[in-house]
Amino acid sequence: MNSKHTVFLFLTTILLTILYNNSYSQRRDSITFAGIQWNTSAVSKGIHWKQANISDIFNSRQEINIIEIDLKKHKNSLRLAALPRSLEKTSVLAEKSHARVAINGGFFDMKNGGAIDFIKADNHVINTTANPSIRANAYFVFNSKKVEITTDSTLAFHYPNALLSGPLLLEKSLQQRLPKNSFNDHRHPRTAIALKDDKLIFITVDGRNSNSQGLNLEELSKILRWYGCEDAMNLDGGGSTTMYIKGQPNRGIVNYPSDNKQFDHLGERSVANIIYLFSKK
């Protein structure tokens, strides 16, 4: 056997080993996720909160919170709250808006306030896109009859409510190809929104702590796909990642916001907008 054949066989063996290890890890992680024993609570009829701390997925520990919203029952209660030139904590915005449940929304100007990407609430444009980014490539749009996650920018002008953020993670149950960069590839706390059958999914994954290390966006996409979501988009994460449920302790904050570098419910970062369900009660 000559040296070229030896080198070829050696490289082929390495490649097959890498592919096998990756495939094995994915199978193991998907099995781990399928076996999660969620702590599930009914927030109200048609709204369920699920929580789990997973000790070993993607070779890491993760704290995940999910809110499932039955759109057949609550589509008319879906809202955006947005501040054009200021910032406020998610819990405060939620309380002022009479929210039953809420998550933080899109990216914002940390110095001056307001969203840095297009956002429209109840037919009022709150902010326009300051500097277009390949990261912000998906719109969450809705009216009283329909809710969509789309890359079609024209829909943002036809719907009364629209929030631009991203990147898009799932489209018709298929993971999207993500550019290689630090934002996508490094592990951070994450917030995302997704559609699953007739349900709207709010999800937060905490991070920057040994109790929850956070996910990169490929890992987040897999979580959402394994959960059965069809369309999904990333929202603002990091210190902004926050989930609110009315009536829960700690001003309704049920995840572990990381902005105070502690694994508690007190580390909220002020944000410019939230996605929420309005509650009359």
UniProtKB/TrEMBL annotation:
Cited InterPro entries: NAGPA (IPR018711)
Residue span, Phosphodiester glycosidase domain: 98-278
Pfam family, one: NAGPA
PANTHER family reported in the protein's UniProt record: N-ACETYLGLUCOSAMINE-1-PHOSPHODIESTER ALPHA-N-ACETYLGLUCOSAMINIDASE
Protein name: Phosphodiester glycosidase domain-containing protein
